[in-house]
Amino acid sequence: MATTIPNRQLFIDGAWREPVLKKRIPVVNPATEQIIGDIAAGTAEDVGLAVEAARRAFTRNKGKDWSSASGAVRAKYLRAIAAKVTERKSELAKFEAIDCGKPLDEAAWDIDDVAGCFEYYADLAEGLDAKQKAPISLPMEAFKSYVLKEPLGVVGLITPWNYPLLMATWKVAPALAAGCTAVLKPSELASVTCLELAEICREVGLPSGVLNIITGLGPEAGAPLAAHPNVDKIAFTGSSVTGSKIMTAAAQMVKPVSLELGGKSPIVVFEDIDLDKAAEWTAFGCFWTNGQICSATSRLIVHEKIAEEFLDKLVKWCKNIKISDPLEEGCRMGPVVSGGQYEKICKFISTAKSEGATILCGGARPKHLTKGYFIEPTIITNVTNSMQIWREEVFGPVLCVKTFSTEDEAIELANNTHYGLGAAVISNDLERCDRVSKAFQAGIVWINCSQPCFCQAPWGGNKRSGFGRELGEWGLDNYLSVKQVTRYVSDEPWGWYQSPSKL
Fold first, then answer.
1. 100 close to 30: Cβ distance less than 8 angstroms
2. What predicted TM-score, i.e. pTM, was given to this entire model?
3. Are 225 and 131 in contact (CB under 8 A)?
4. Phi, psi (5° rounding) for residue 369?
5. Cβ neighbours of residue 474 under 8 Å, at least 6 residues apart?
């Protein structure tokens, strides 16, 4: 019997609310193609109610309930959420696996990271109190100046389906730590665990309206949120095409946005490496999360001296990856998220073949799996710079390969992209690694690894991969406004104009 998911409505003003138009969207398990439940399909009317609730929560009791409460008060709620997430870890991981196809072990790791992220931002919320009224050194003794850090207001958070709860947490935790109130719109392809976050917030007594969650389709719920005049900032993770639309909508009201968009990240492998270690990191960098990572190092740039031997190793590593139902023990690759995504990835692979590239391994459904949106880890060689597979983000388990002979050539190939999210270099020459790291046009660089991510370190890209940084102290700054306060402290009159009393 298929596992089912809890039946949830929209979460508005601290309570479950049926969508105004009473529509629902089916939830499909990508491993079985079976419907396992449904989610509410929110629309502009529901977004309006959620934004109103968030605005009331922001200003309630002159802000004393949340926005101008001490960071320590907000930290208490964030820690309570973290504890509940940990308590429900196995259940949340299973929901994540059947909702988006992520291997269960990986989903469990993500849930640990969710709890850790809430804990981390609880600490930063407390630290905010001590940083208020930070003095500014001025050249004139007659003035004293300090800085206040204040929450931006009501924020709209729009998140993707590849890390459903974790990507939401990357935005929710710092936004709440800063004192903002929020409306979260998760992807319609994977909203289940975000709705469970709403239930957790309800259980820990988070003040009503501080976090509201609207599920629904992008055009019907995400677009109205991005364009809403009473939303003070939009934070978005997703495709560059949608990011551009959100930026356009926000521009009408000069509304700040932070965007974490697509990528086509390189991994440069030099000739002085351990082949097996480099092969595993190369596979992990592209095939982790079923290949559905914005930062995936999906362009392998390998030194020509070792290319043949390295690719032979890499194929063996790929053929050893266990592809199965995400709930099966030892699964290391599950299905991609949906039928639409499956078709899109298959089209990328067929286009690469028609353009003259070679499918070195993979490129099709695994023979032992007749149901589900499964695609083998795929390696494509004989690629040219003009090919679609080299230029465009696939968002699936597809690695394309080129060779190089010199360090300069490797750097040029690595930077030959509109994107600039991640980049990796693998070499035993650490001076060379430092040179290449500086030369990469990317927001994140990995040396002798690929994809490690820590909530203490900044995350974000350059070029068409977006702007702004999530995680670390930079993630908190995303949701804070800086206010300068300057006071005249001298007993002497300013004396710029002649006093009327002395005329």
1. yes
2. 0.96
3. no
4. -120, 110
5. 458, 460
Q: Strands 233-237 and 211-213, how do they pair?
A: unpaired
Report the C-alpha gap between 387 and 152 in whole angstroms: 43
Q: Which of 254, 251, 216, 231 is nearest to 52 (CA)?
A: 231
pLDDT of residue 4: 80
Structure tokens at 410: 């490797």
pLDDT tens for each residue of 300-353: 999 999 999 999 999 999 999 999 999 999 999 999 999 999 999 999 999 999
What are the backbone angles phi and psi of residue 216, rounded to the nearest 5°? Answer: 150, 180
CA–CA distance, 241 with 207 (Å, rounded to integer): 35
Per-residue pLDDT tens for 251-280?
Answer: 999 999 999 999 999 999 999 999 999 999
Residue with tokens 């491993």: 31
- Which residues of the chain are under the pLDDT cut of 50? 1
Three-state DSSP state, 163: coil
Q: Which helix (H) or strand (E) holds 183?
A: strand 181-185
SS3 at position 435: helix
pLDDT score at 2: 61
- The tokens for 167 are 């990507």
What are the pLDDT digits (tens) for 60-119?
999 999 999 999 999 999 999 999 999 999 999 999 999 999 999 999 999 999 999 999
Assess contact for 297 and 445: CB atoms under 8 A.
no
- In angstroms, rounded to a whole number, what is the distance separating the alpha carbons of residues 53 and 16? 13
Task: Tell me the longest C-alpha to C-alpha distance in the chain.
Answer: 99
Quote the CA–CA distance of 440 and 415 in Å, as a whole number: 6
Alpha carbon distance, N-terminus to C-terminus of the chain:
95
Three-state secondary structure string covering 206-246: CCCCCEEECCCCHHHHHHHHHHCCCCCEEEEECCHHHHHHH
Tokens of 158: 């729009």
CA–CA separation, 89 and 66 (whole Å): 28
Distances from the Cα of 39 to the Cα of 6, 8, 214, angstroms: 9, 7, 10
CA distance 154 to 202: 19
16, two tokens: 């479950």
Give the separation between CA 50 and CA 9, rounded to whole angstroms: 13
Q: Give me the count of residues in the chain.
A: 503
Neighbours of 263 (CB within 10 A): 31
pLDDT of residue 251: 92
Q: Which residues are catalytic?
A: 260, 294
Q: 3-state DSSP: the chain helix, strand, coil percent, rounded to 5?
A: 40, 20, 40
470 DSSP 8-state letter:
B
d(CA 424, CA 296): 10
The DSSP secondary-structure symbol of 459 reads: B
